[in-house]
Amino acid sequence: MDQLMEILTEVNADVDFETCDTLIDDGILDSFDIVSIVGELNDTFDIDITPADIVPENFNSAEAMWDMIQRLQEL
Domains in the chain, start-ordered, CATH in brackets? Predict the structure, then answer.
């Protein structure tokens, strides 16, 4: 989870990723942020995030992203 938080902070240091759970719903992260995050997560965690995975439920919070990472690592 620490690696994830580092990635998120690098993408947008102004966001409180620890507590925010509406990153997509409230427009805090834009499409460029998501593309950057997906690329970093794929490389860092050796996973393959597909277009089907890029839905608000997977990116609204750091916890949701972490759950997605763990789920994809099990495949």
Answer: 2-10+17-73 (1.10.1200.10)
